[in-house]
Amino acid sequence: MTGILGSQYLERQPLRLQERVWIYPPDWQHLEPTIGWVSTGAGLIVIDSGNSPEHGRRALRAIRSISDEPIRYLINTHRHWDHTFGNQVFAAPIIAHALCRRKLEQNLRDDWAPDRLMGWVQSFVLTHVPTLQLEQFAGLRLIRPEITFSGHLRLTLGATRLELVYLGGVHTRDSIGVYLPAQRLLFLGDALYFRTDQQIAERLGRLLRRIDALGAERFVAGHERPYDREVLARKARRWLAKSNSSG
Length: 247
Hints:
By secondary structure, this protein is α/β, with parallel strands linked by helices. The protein has a single domain, classed as Ribonuclease Z/Hydroxyacylglutathione hydrolase-like (Metallo-beta-lactamase, Chain A, 4-Layer Sandwich), CATH 3.60.15.10. 30% of the residues lie in helices and 23% in strands. Strand 10 and strand 11 form a beta hairpin. Helix 6 (201-214) packs antiparallel against helix 7 (229-246). The termini are far apart. The mean pLDDT is 91.
């Protein structure tokens, strides 16, 4: 993509993970997390919406290069801005954990209120991620999740079943995972995104046990390329060792 936003915002190619499962890959330089989607034959389920309306629109173009199925649901894995500021682009019912909705509503009464939102983008987002541009947030409207759950939600569309499970974790307490049992694939959002100097050994151990119980063989994290169970095991050993040593 060129023009007002410049050539640094080039379209990325969608990446096929398995049959009917795709991602728009992450870009760490611009804090753009993974956006995933599942084609069910009865419609698409999108996982996370991007860090801005512009990011969401690029992902939507990638989706439309693959499928013309209608988008039936959008899932927010948690409420952080880089995963929810593209919500308006997808025009579909949004599913999230009940705590995610509560936290979004708290934000909407504070820095994310309509009359304060763009000021927050300028003062916080563009300060912390200077590679982004204010134009990417033009017309930003925050859309709340309308379908919420607490512990677990089974979502079936067509012949496809997804399990939405509460993970909590060490990044933010409203994190969920999106598990596709047939593919043994787990979208993690940012549940495993944290600083290794944090004293989190106990919480991390609980989170890893929850993940292990699902039986997933492949993992899609919010800001990394997908990896398999062996890589997760290596990461877990390293994280736990660093966390224990910093305690």
